[in-house]
UniProtKB/TrEMBL annotation:
It holds the Pfam family MR_MLE_C. PROSITE patterns: MR_MLE_1. Keywords: Lyase. Residues 139-235 form the Mandelate racemase/muconate lactonizing enzyme C-terminal domain. Gene3D superfamilies: Enolase-like C-terminal domain (3.20.20.120), Enolase-like, N-terminal domain (3.30.390.10). It comes from the Bacteria. One of its GO terms (biological process) is amino acid catabolic process. GO terms for molecular function: lyase activity; magnesium ion binding. This is Mandelate racemase/muconate lactonizing enzyme family protein. It comes from Psychromarinibacter sediminicola.
Amino acid sequence: MKIAGVNTYLMQAGARPDLTRAMGADADFRGSRCWLFLEIETDEGITGVGECSGWPRAVETAITDLSHVLVGQDPAHIDRLWAQCYRAMMGHGLTGTVGAGALSGIEMALWDIKGKLLGAPVWQLLGGAIRERIPVYGHAHTADEALALKDLGYSALKTPFTGIVDFDRIGMLRDTVGPEIDIAVDAHGPSWMSAADAILVGRELEPYDLLFYEDPVPPENLDMLARVRDHVAVPLAAGERVGTVHGCRDYIERDLVDVIQPDTGRGGGIGQMRKIAAMAEPHGIMLAPHSGSLGPVAEFAALHIMATVPNALLLERIEFDWPGRYEVVTPVLKVEHGCLPLPTAPGLGVELVKDEIAKYPVQRNVTMPPKDDGRAYVAGTAGEAVHVQTRRARARTLRR
């Protein structure tokens, strides 16, 4: 069997359907959300699908280039093809999330081909399942949304912030779901907090018994994260903005996090995600793959990963997503008692619905500025687009 071609399918993913359930920036990603799927064809008619993140519009160009490395080769040799693609990009500098995104989708598709050829789901080829149901956590901004997740059997939820952490919202969610449901807080920027401010916020979060406190400081400076780790008694989580084991290495080896969160679409592939989990396991670090902006193919891939690593915590899932999510692939995943069941079909267990994907041509794949409403930035400063910003009105924004 030989690889005959590599096709890409780039689409614009719309806003979530109920904007009253989410803050403005989180509701539609300010027009930047795109999904990039790919399909590897073989000369024997078996095809494999994958998904890439890490600036999908740019990743598509990378895949077009890398197809020259792949066409004519035997798709069975997954690790060798991954290494050849990795080597092919080295002349451009260190592999960032664009390169890692291309590697991720290509490697997913190769695993899909292998599973279909052998008549087995990918998790069977990775040593079999440690667990057959993968627990998930959802996003909640309101009491109604939290209760809807609870009704679906979710045992954990995350409330995301961009800029200012709203302690009133966290308290409301805790009162709404009670002590049996875990709560996580995502505090990512921009604007990002300084280490000093992230420590103050983290200390205020300690009474809520959080599952984790995510991305409190900018990812470029891990020394800032070390300062936060040394001064708060809250589990820390990070890692969605880097790719491959090389991007996650310092988070793990320096014990900077309790939960590592590589993105399944730009983590480097199923093999790399499993290596990250293996690196994290002896440190007592759990794996909780990021999935906040991803499409449905990467979610299938994440299930195979989470089934086969011992230190799997939870998989992120956007439960109340844009309706188009459920039209562009088949079958559609459905939460049962707070978990997603493992696919049993050969390969990844998912196929693209290309006619539906074609209905959503890409318009834009960069984030537009947020509203200057005092949420993402100090009011009146959004136009400055600063990366790190000291919080003002500190008695209100840094205290419960």
